[in-house]
Amino acid sequence: MRIERSKAVSDRIAASIRSGELPAGTRLPTHRELARKHGIALATATKAYRELADAGLTVGERGRGTFVRDLSGFAGPDARRIPVTDRVADLSFNQPLAEEQPLALRRALRELASEGDLASLLRQSPPGGHMREQAAVATYLLGRGIDVPPANVVLTNGAQHSLDTALATVARPGAPLALDSLTYPGVKLVAQLRHLDPVPVRCGTDGTDLDALEALCRSRRVSAAYLMPTLHNPLGFVLDTSARERVAELARAYDFCLVEDATYAFLDAAAAPALQAFAPERTFYVGSFSKNLAPGLRIGYLVVPTSHVDAVSRVLRATSWGVDTVASALVTRWLTDGTVHAMESARRADARVRQKAAVHELADLGYRAHPCAYHGWLALPDDARGDLVARTLAERGVLVSTGDAFATSPERANALRLALATPSMEQLIRGLSIVREVVGFA
Ligand SMILES: Cc1ncc(COP(=O)(O)O)c(C=O)c1O
Fold this sequence. Notes:
- The protein is about 45% helix and about 15% strand.
- The protein has helices at about 5-20, 30-40, 40-55, 100-115, 120, 130-140, 160-170, 185-195, 210-220, 240-255, 275-280, 310-320, 325-335, 340-360, 385-395, 425-440, and strands at about 60, 65-70, 90, 155, 175-180, 195-200, 205, 205-210, 225, 255-260, 285-290, 300-305, 365-370, 375-380, 400, 400, 415-420.
- The strands form 5 sheets. It has a 7-stranded mixed sheet with strand order 4-12-11-10-9-5-6, sandwiched between helices. It has a 4-stranded antiparallel sheet with strand order 13-14-17-16. Strands 1-2 form a two-stranded antiparallel sheet.
- Pyridoxal-5'-phosphate (PLP) binds next to helix 7.
């Protein structure tokens, strides 16, 4: 089979980008230079660059050239190489942890050791967890208006694993997956790994453009849509009831599945009911104990439509079999003794305080966020480059994610995503003032 010349050239550049040989922010040769270097026509070089941009690997900036896009979410010096003492604040990833949690863990481990059936912890957990664990999560979900039998809830190794499980179950390789034009980067990785065809749907701070989703459904046979209706990451929007009803109607009319990522949903107790409640027969509800308890536990869950329970079980057997028995025993204990409930209300209050501090420091620079969210979106001036701003911030000890890491369309996302949950309050305040200084001058 003959490979088009543009494809051969774009494949070679793509391989160098993916291997890290061409790091984020690298300026690529001009179209003319590329043509000369590979002995190809100018139009072929232009086509090769278009293919790279369509694949989300590069971004063109008018008058400045073509640059390698930041695929990692962070383009500054390797975060692990910044000495801890120089690190003012990590605003790149939300890892909330309350001061009293290590103590609570010690207590729970002691209780588990003295009262628990330790032999059972050494046996493998069945795919999806034990029935009592599934029942504990199902009961917890009643508080969110999700009413399903325990058999429809499977435990996973975190929301990322839930996401992979849902997409591996419903979408065949090459299948179009509708997702927001700015979305959680982890879904891009799954789509790549599972060879899906991610198709961006326009979105903004007021939500996913549902007319655009409908237009996409009319032109292509979408197999699933990945959405974050409550506290979207990175934009923070919350879809209202009528938008959720419309999503469910579209899913039914065009016969596709919904993958609803509710990782941050616990932070907004006043949000409209879950998509799962509007279309239970086709919604995979992705949840996690990473943000409301602790990310190190690696326990999440997936609510599965009845028709897909067996298929999900097969995927779990293929990917991880069961979950960590000690971590799932801890989570089950904390679900039933009220710890999760208490942690969630503390986190809701904490997120509001942190968000207020960020708005206070950055609102006049264009920072936008939902008052309940643990993150926000800081659009940068047209002449500033996200990856360069992130690098300057990292050099001053503040780690952030660049907007490009969240983009699924070739359009440039010239912004920073600030995650507020990880640092102490003092570190956060200092970090935000450094962001203000650097972005104000960018
Ligand atoms: C929207 C979203 N979904 C999923 C995840 C993955 O969560 P987990 O740690 O449970 O795998 C994250 C983590 O930040 C997230 O922001």
